[in-house]
């Protein structure tokens, strides 16, 4: 009887897992299949398949410009977030600062407020500084919303390191930066890569902050997509670009997994 109950719970859990997977993957499947629709009207499943909207996406200067802007801003914001977040997380993880909890909560402040409230506050500050609508202002704004994720990830990464390793390297004559570069950095490298990837995706997908801060020159892809949906509805070109972005993300995840496995083998 106990075995039967366990088997029943196992089947129930399997069914629940399948439902969750379907709920997550169904929108992606609809997006990808709809991108190959031959007609302009949104239809799923498509009655005929074509690559015409992918060709139109590559030919659209507006979409290419928006994608380039989002990619550039995301890369710079991610790099800035990783550098600042790593510098902040190291002393916090090792308890080397006073009022550690208060400082950590301050660094996580962007997560505690609605993004629209945070964007309005940034807009007021940027208007006073005269940097609203600039590339630097937009990058800084994106860095503020990605920094909390980097701090949390890197605190967890540093917390798993034995502090005596760094002390041992210093006792052997290594300067502090050399000890960090040769001992600590290789251990936390997976955390750094995860932080960079997560920060880039958060920045790339942002709509609210970019709507408030971006000027006419730096229109990001999500902002252009949102404007397109409001004015003209679902555009098949946006579906094609969305499918390409999904494919690029899946490829990046696959490459990241391969690099991570190879890294673990070399470190073993």
Automatic annotation (TrEMBL):
Domain ABC transmembrane type-1 span(s) in chain numbering: 67-256
GO biological process, one term: transmembrane transport
Lineage start: Bacteria, Pseudomonadati, Pseudomonadota, Alphaproteobacteria, Hyphomicrobiales
One Pfam family linked to the record: BPD_transp_1
Any Gene Ontology CC annotation: plasma membrane
Gene3D superfamilies: MetI-like
Protein name from the UniProt record: Putative spermidine/putrescine transport system permease protein
CDD domains for the chain: TM_PBP2
Transmembrane segments: 12-36, 72-93, 105-129, 135-161, 182-202, 237-259
UniProt topology in membrane: Multi-pass membrane protein
Organism per entry: Prosthecomicrobium pneumaticum
UniProt key word Ribosomal protein: no
Location relative to the cell: Cell inner membrane; Cell membrane
InterPro entries membership: MetI-like (IPR000515), MetI-like_sf (IPR035906)
Keywords recorded for this protein, A-Z: Cell inner membrane, Cell membrane, Membrane, Transmembrane, Transmembrane helix, Transport
Family in the record: Belongs to the binding-protein-dependent transport system permease family.
């Amino acid at each position: 009887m106990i075995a039967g109950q366990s088997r029943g719970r196992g089947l129930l859990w399997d069914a629940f897992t399948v439902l969750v997977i379907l709920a997550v993957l169904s929108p992606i499947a609809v997006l990808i299949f709809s991108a190959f629709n031959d007609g302009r009207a949104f239809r799923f499943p498509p009655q005929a398949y074509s690559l015409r909207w992918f060709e139109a996406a590559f030919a659209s200067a507006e979409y290419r410009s928006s994608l380039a802007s989002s990619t550039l801003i995301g890369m710079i914001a991610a790099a800035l977030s990783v550098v600042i977040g790593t510098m902040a997380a190291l002393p916090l993880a090792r308890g080397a600062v006073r009022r550690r909890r208060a400082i950590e909560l301050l660094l996580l402040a962007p997560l505690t407020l609605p993004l629209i409230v945070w964007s309005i506050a940034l807009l007021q500050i940027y208007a006073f500084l005269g940097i609203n609508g600039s590339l630097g202002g937009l990058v800084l704004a994106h860095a503020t919303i990605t920094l909390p994720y980097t701090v949390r990830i890197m605190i967890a990464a540093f917390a798993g390191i034995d502090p005596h390793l760094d002390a041992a390297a210093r006792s052997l004559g290594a300067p502090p930066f050399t000890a960090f570069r040769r001992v600590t950095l290789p251990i936390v490298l997976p955390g750094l890569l995860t932080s960079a990837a997560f920060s880039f995706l958060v920045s790339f997908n942002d709509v609210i902050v970019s709507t408030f801060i971006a000027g006419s020159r730096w229109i990001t892809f999500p902002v252009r997509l949102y404007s397109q949906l409001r004015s003209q509805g679902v555009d098949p070109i946006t579906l094609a670009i969305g499918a390409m972005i999904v494919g690029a993300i899946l490829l990046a995840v696959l490459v990241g997994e391969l690099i991570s496995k190879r890294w673990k083998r070399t470190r073993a």
